[in-house]
Specification:
The protein is globular and about 45 Å long. The mean pLDDT is 85. The relative contact order is 0.15. The chain is 73% helix and 0% strand. It is an all-alpha fold.
Length: 124
């Protein structure tokens, strides 16, 4: 788990840094830095289950919004036939931007869930 958390901590810091040209970096930089902070602490053996629950809850709510929004994941999958979201780094179409954001949240949720369940096993 230590290597897992070091890798994700570094990746989340990189993801946060890449948000400088995003239309809403004030939202996404803290989102990724929170994940990086949780992974940093977990790599040092400090697991904070309440922080994971908080992060997972916030990320799930935001992911649900992005999923059902008029330019969200459903729109991307149905109206735009799952158009390639990695073709260019410039997201000129709103459904591409929101779909990428959804998958970013999905990754964060998976990593926090892994730490949450690992922390629960450590106490037993």
């Amino acid at each position: 788990m230590k290597i897992f958390n070091i890798v994700w901590c570094i990746l989340f810091i990189i993801f946060a840094g890449l948000q400088y040209n995003d239309p809403d970096p004030y939202v996404w930089v803290p989102i990724y830095l929170f994940g990086a902070g949780c992974c940093f602490l977990a790599a040092r053996g400090r697991f904070h289950r309440k922080a994971y629950i908080f992060g997972i809850f916030i990320y799930l709510v935001y992911a649900a919004y992005l999923f059902f929004d008029k330019n969200g994941v459903i729109d991307w999958a149905t109206e735009h036939h799952g158009e390639n979201i990695a073709e260019t780094m410039k997201a000129a179409k709103p459904w591409i931007e929101e779909t990428r954001e959804f998958f970013g949240l999905f990754i964060l949720i998976i990593v926090l869930l892994a730490n949450y369940f690992y922390a629960g096993k450590k106490k037993v």
